[in-house]
Amino acid sequence: MPRVVSKNLFHFKPTGQLDDDVKAMEDVELAAAQSPEVMQMVEKMAELTQKDDEESNKEFVSLLRAVCAPYADIIKDSPKYKDSIEKTITSSLKVPTSHDGDFDVPVEVYTPKDLENETNRVAYIYAHGGGGVAMSAADFDVLLKYYAVELNVVVFNVDYRIAPETRCPNNVKDFHEVIQYVSKNAESLGVDPAKIVIAGDSGGGYICLGSMVMLAQNDESHLSDWLYQVYPWSMTTASLTASHDS
């Protein structure tokens, strides 16, 4: 069978328009990214990438977390997302793990009030963004409550451990064990074990990819048939080398 040849398949130009609320949030995010304070931190981070000592690495992480903080506030303050707070029920659970010491992974659960008495709900297990070194599940609570309402699903907001305090792949293992937990306890959680979605953005997309690999390695691919990633943070060794050489 001949390969499909298309000059437009991966190089198309969007022809639509942003909704007004999306454009407004984009403008706020852009203004935050271009603020003098953030630009100064980004410049300092660029300098620190040329160093490789413990003090410089710690300063880089501290700056990265500070750069990410305004975006969490923008999400939490969005009227579009905040309306969903009153439409959801919040609960929490902890998933015990032992792959990197004894640690209970905190998970916030957001259930749309319209689904409160349902028993075959879709489970939407989410890994937050932040490059694997910044932000937390709490930074995404308002956004994920919006997801729960709009998608009509039960969201499991996973507060996996981040670097450098926790070394890879233990962050991935945290998330993987939550997937296992939700699947094994589907009945008591009121979700359908055949309807488990794994999702994440940016660094959370990388967590998802790592978890999918672990599911395959453990013959557990059946635990989830759906994967949704938003601009996942992933890069091969080859592309890293190419970037460095260029």
Report the order of strands and helices: HHHHEEEHEHHEHEH
- Overall strand count: 6
What is the quaternary state of this protein?
single chain
| Broad structural category | alpha/beta
Proportion in helices: 40-55%
Give the CA-CA distance, first to last residue.
37 Å
Strand order of the largest sheet: 1-2-4-3-5-6
Beta-strand content: 15-25%
Principal-axis shape: globular
Describe, in plain words, how this protein is organized in 3D.
By secondary structure, the protein is an alpha/beta fold. The chain is 44% helix and 20% strand. It has 9 helices and 6 strands; from the N terminus they run ααααβββαβααβαβα. A 6-stranded mixed beta sheet has the order 1-2-4-3-5-6. The two termini are 37 Å apart. The model is unreliable at 236-246 (pLDDT under 50).
Give me some keywords for this one.
246 residues, disordered C terminus, six-stranded mixed beta sheet, alpha/beta
Task: List strands and helices in order, with pairings.
Elements: H1 20-33, H2 36-48, H3 54-77, H4 79-82, E1 88-97, E2 103-112, E3 121-127, H5 141-151, E4 154-158, H6 170-184, H7 186-189, E5 191-201, H8 203-217, E6 226-230, H9 237-245
Parallel strand pairs: 3-4, 3-5, 5-6
Antiparallel strand pairs: 1-2, 2-4
Helix pairs in contact: 1-3, 2-3, 6-8
Condensed summary:
This protein is α/β, with parallel strands linked by helices. The chain has helices spanning 20-33, 36-48, 54-77, 79-82, 141-151, 170-184, 186-189, 203-217, 237-245, and strands at 88-97, 103-112, 121-127, 154-158, 191-201, 226-230.
